[in-house]
């Protein structure tokens, strides 16, 4: 019997109607209560605004003073219309009323004063119309409004869903509308190889299914900003010719509770309808952050969204061709449940490109740019160590803009190197004028850096020295270019780098017997390297092979966290101090022993303001009595490149052959800068000279 009732469709319909009828009754009751309250409040407000109650005595007094123009007798009250003299400047006056009292003499008084009076006869038909307009029509309107909103909310699948808040906001690109293929992605060969397998699976699922292989449910693209993670995802969709859902992790987040989970459900529902397809979630750490309190756990709304995402990734059938791509530059904060196999099966590293990758990337971004015969992208690639794809694309565009501003129709090597230099140190500040003493100090500071590189065998060769102020705050800097791409550094090379960084401060002390604020960034960089040698690289005899520091968010700021006690941290500080003290002493010794070379090069730099690495080495060899090399095979790569460019009196480039000197990008010893002292006065130097000057050295 129970089974029959359970399976009877008529019974099911009756059960379905009950909730609907109940909802209708509830809506009508709510609408009636709201309408009654609203009308009562409205009548009260209107009455208070236009009617005013007075006593019967006041009414009689108004008649005696000729302040009444008309009177209406109602069944329970008397309405008094005041005369025109009672109106204010805007023509407004209250309609007074008082309680009805049986007074036989009232009509005589009104006749004596010539006041019009009348009785009130209620109109039954008018009362019915008023009732309908005042009570029934508002209730009906509110009922219809509630019904409309309720239905929209029901269709939305969640709180505020019917208003679009619960809907997913993914952009859908169908077929090749992404406009990107693997040919548009350069410098990421390993990442492309991993994703090519996914594309092949989407094209030929039977080939893999025949052997029992299954399509991975998802892949996580990990790497620094600007390396092309989003571009790779679009290339996968473009190669696979399947619909591509693209959205950011923040698109799931709203102020309403439950919206994130609703959007996840809606996204997967739509994606399964269009399978095979690809879902790409950029910056997934916005919703996939670990539920551990250490990473800001405890946000119920974000956890609901994450839980729904985990459930959906477990629930869909990968054999239908639904694949999830996600990108992040903070993989360490993602929830462990999100990273396990069966959800994001693969982690694809999209790192900064190497030399070959940078050259290939430059070729991709310059294919539509007109360039002359002087352009050598290999030299640019060598000069931009540490640059990512977006940096290189921006540099090509800046070079093209510079060529147009110069009135030329093609980009030259000079434009490209100037673009690199602008990114490193900013544009030249031609309006900044240094005092003679400051200019001399900056010259010795920069030559101090450069001379150390010539005296130390492990140093990278100098490419350019300048004391021309730049918009990023530098009063001068030294360019250095590695002779080859390096992935490891020895302890001797790091020690040489420390000595070079401290060479500017050492030169100030040797020559002027005082110091300036210009070495602040040099000291900061040197301290970072020295601390890393002790805490991360195990290059301290005192601490040996202990790991004392952990780098967090290595794809972003790379901030470090000590893994030791406060006592050990104090000992680390002492060790760093001793290491820097040792390197500074060596820098002072080298510069003191070669004071003649320091003075000669600083004098030349003071006059010219900008010199090349070749000119620097010529003066160095001349003062040291070293013969000039005749065979170019004895020259370094950077010296050979420097042969192709000369500098005009204003410091600009003049390209002569098919190469020009590269500029460093992100190397710890690429640039050295001089910073002005905050104590400088307007008398010594213009006010703008007090801007903070940054050493353009950056770590490799």
Structure description:
It is elongated and about 135 Å long. A 6-stranded mixed beta sheet has the order 6-8-9-10-7-11, with helices on one face. Strands 1-4-3-2-5 form a 5-stranded mixed beta sheet. Strands 13-12-16 form a 3-stranded antiparallel beta sheet. β8 (244-248), α9 (259-273) and β9 form a beta-alpha-beta unit. The model is unreliable at 1-19, 156-166 and 644-700 (pLDDT under 50). The chain contains 24 helices and 18 strands. Helices cover 48% and strands 11% of the residues. The protein has 700 residues and is α/β, with parallel strands linked by helices. The chain has 5 domains: 19-47 and 124-156, no CATH class; 54-121, Signal recognition particle alu RNA binding heterodimer, srp9/1 (2-Layer Sandwich); 171-349, P-loop containing nucleotide triphosphate hydrolases (Rossmann fold), CATH 3.40.50; 355-422, Orthogonal Bundle (Helicase, Ruva Protein, domain 3), CATH 1.10.8; 437-690, Up-down Bundle (Methane Monooxygenase Hydroxylase, Chain G, domain 1), CATH 1.20.58.760. The two termini are 80 Å apart.
